[in-house]
Write a structure and sequence with these properties.
Blueprint: H1 17-25, H2 27-37, H3 44-61, E1 67-72, E2 80-84, H4 87-99, H5 103-110, E3 114-117, H6 118-124, H7 126-134, E4 139-146, E5 152-160, H8 170-193, H9 196-224, H10 228-242, H11 246-255
Antiparallel strand pairs: 1-2, 1-5, 3-4, 4-5
Helix pairs in contact: 1-2, 1-8, 2-3, 2-8, 3-8, 3-9, 6-7, 9-10, 9-11, 10-11
Length: 260
């Protein structure tokens, strides 16, 4: 197994205790994680790609997890979802941001793991509990992403349809630790390349652009009764024809009233 040299100021996920334990306990899983997560972080877009992989791998390798999302919150930027495996996890993340509290935001503020069933939520955030039930979610577990200086840069949010807590095995705990360590390393790398504020703004701008573009593609699929590739092509044609960026073309589609 090989990896690029790591700057001494940056966390080395492959050198973490959790990764070494996982390598001894289940080499195949450890190798799969390393292969999927060892990507070069050169831009905010790379961080979003890693966040998407972290979410997908959590669902694949952590028992009892049905969906997952990654919340980022650094400097003074409002918390936002950088990646989610499905609409339910994304919606539950946003519900917590709207309420201003919840398991993921509590993990952000305290730097500790927050694990709650929907019944637990009833006693603290009844609105969030109702939202979770309507989305078919029975349990939320949020793991903080802590930097070397103990700043909380984000959370990995795990959602389960089952309300009962799955007793974590040592392998399961190490998988989560490896995912969190990789995410921390990517955020640290991005923060060292530019200020946290500029890095956060760039990631947030990319997320906002992706949301608008995805929405515009969906609108075009409906309005033109076409499949995804055709809608993507149509949006590109609109951008080229109007001499605008893809994002600006998407905004025009979303803002339109009479259709395209």
């Amino acid at each position: 197994m090989s990896s690029d040299p790591v700057d001494n100021d940056r966390p080395d996920p492959l050198g973490s205790d959790a990764f070494r334990r996982l390598l001894r306990a289940d080499g195949d899983v450890a190798q799969s994680l390393a292969d999927a997560l060892s990507i070069r972080i050169e831009s905010a877009d790379d961080v979003l790609e890693l966040a998407a992989r972290v979410s997908a791998l959590a669902v694949r390798y952590v028992p009892g997890v049905d969906s997952a999302a990654v919340t980022l919150a650094f400097d003074t930027v409002r918390p936002f979802t950088a990646a989610a495996t499905d609409q339910s996890s994304s919606s539950l993340d946003r519900a917590q941001y709207d309420i201003g509290d919840g398991p993921s935001l509590r993990a952000l503020r305290t730097g500790t793991v927050v694990d709650m069933s929907v019944d637990d939520l009833d006693g603290t955030w009844s609105v969030l509990a109702r939202f979770a039930r309507s989305a078919g979610i029975g349990r939320i577990t949020a793991y903080p992403v802590l930097s070397e200086s103990a700043d909380t840069l984000g959370t990995v949010n795990l959602y389960s349809r089952n309300t009962a807590r799955v007793a974590p095995t040592h392998v399961c705990e190490d998988v989560i630790a490896v995912l969190v360590t990789y995410l921390c390393a990517s955020l640290t790398t991005l923060g060292l390349e530019s200020s946290w504020r500029r890095a956060a703004d760039r990631v947030k701008d990319l997320m906002d652009a992706r949301v608008v573009i995805d929405l515009a593609i969906g609108i075009l699929m409906i309005r033109r009764d076409c499949d995804l590739p055709a809608a993507v092509s149509a949006l590109n044609d609109l951008a080229f024809g109007n001499g605008t960026t893809l994002h600006d073309a998407a905004v025009a589609v979303v803002d339109s009233i009479d259709g395209v």
